């Protein structure tokens, strides 16, 4: 939930001239509930493709990283990457604030307002990110020595340098997180995906080579170069989409709400990064360093399920902002309902396939039975919690679109201390399986808070309104393969056969008895677009 996007072959999102008219009202084609739903679906599909590419690249690259570094060095590398990822809070949340205020100005047809929101957000984010980088420059040696004394002494120096380089990479990341806002406001997720995920995939692919040639520090230096290139591309595209955008212009009145929203997002991000990294740090503190590597493998594999919330959130955010700015409550309710239906229907077969593939994947991918024996149980526990996280994406994104980062910050702060305590206790007793249970328990608690709270604040219902009888008939197609996957003595051929047959049965029943006519049309359009892309 506290971490940062369903499709039809709709045409690419038009430019500002065709999207906003002089009186600030939306064009007919882009404003209907069905039209917006198709554009959200198309944007989500692009982001999902990017997430799939990122995940597949990570699987391949991590395999070679393990071979290059070995168990001990890979355990250190996994800690280094988790810690540097936690520095994403350093932009003070201006990426989200920039998307909100640039999108609102775009919905009004106010180009000057877009420019002001863009540069005011950049100022609000660049200064704190630079301060964090300078702070890490001085504190990194102490962080490594005090908190990770179990790291072998020859690796402490490279780990320290890697933390310092990673901090400055996030300074450059701030520029990209602001200058992609005009693309998101226009829902040009096709371009955003190609740029953002193209850079991420390139970074992932280059890391094993950099680690082999120069060690841990070179691995983090790759991200520095990627963000330089990505930021340059975003700046050039923004200048094309929004003429005059390279001329700095600030809005003092806008600075306060951006900073206020940024502070809420910053607090939320700090809590989110504590929640993101705490279980890995606890594992590194309580268990052997090899166990940190096993847990990281299980965690990274389970994040494939995060493709779904990442794809939906990226597309829903600008759509929610636009509808809220125009007061389109009925259209907002319709879009929320459709997004919830999509999440509920897609989850069961995806989870089933991931559970069946987990054990053989760990066994053959790592070329070490120890990874399969240790990572698979932790993976099963992690995937249960991440399924709840997928469902929470819709209400959480709506809270962000409403600008209620104060609420998300309070939820995050509420979670941190209990999460650390019960994860520490569970890890002490059950090892990395306990750490995974702690993470899933966190999502269960958060879902019990987020759904009713967001419904009350937004006056939007989050019921997917599914037809229960045909859905109950379809569910065994997903549940049976999951049950078989939990028993290691069941032959692999039987597990995969049940998964394939079950998913086909599930999809057929859902398509015939659960989907609405317009949803079947969206599925058909998506299949046609995917077919054309594959032929090209």
Our count of domains comes out at 3
What is the CA–CA distance across the termini? Answer: 36 Å
What average pLDDT do the residues reach? 80
* Total beta strand runs: 0
Determine the number of helices (DSSP H or I, runs of at least 4 residues). Answer: 20
Structure write-up:
The longest helix has 53 residues. The radius of gyration is 23 Å and the shape is globular. It is mostly helical. The protein is built from 20 helices and no strands. It folds into 3 domains: 205 residues, no CATH class; 188 residues, no CATH class; 70 residues, no CATH class. Helix 5 packs parallel to helix 10.
Write the SSE topology:
Layout: H1 16-19, H2 28-31, H3 33-85, H4 94-108, H5 111-147, H6 153-179, H7 181-185, H8 189-214, H9 216-241, H10 252-286, H11 289-302, H12 307-326, H13 329-365, H14 369-401, H15 405-430, H16 432-458, H17 468-474, H18 476-485, H19 492-513, H20 517-535
Helix pairs in contact: 3-6, 3-8, 3-10, 3-11, 3-12, 3-13, 4-5, 4-6, 4-10, 4-12, 5-6, 5-10, 6-9, 8-9, 10-11, 10-15, 10-16, 11-14, 12-13, 12-14, 13-14, 13-18, 13-19, 14-16, 15-16, 17-19, 18-19
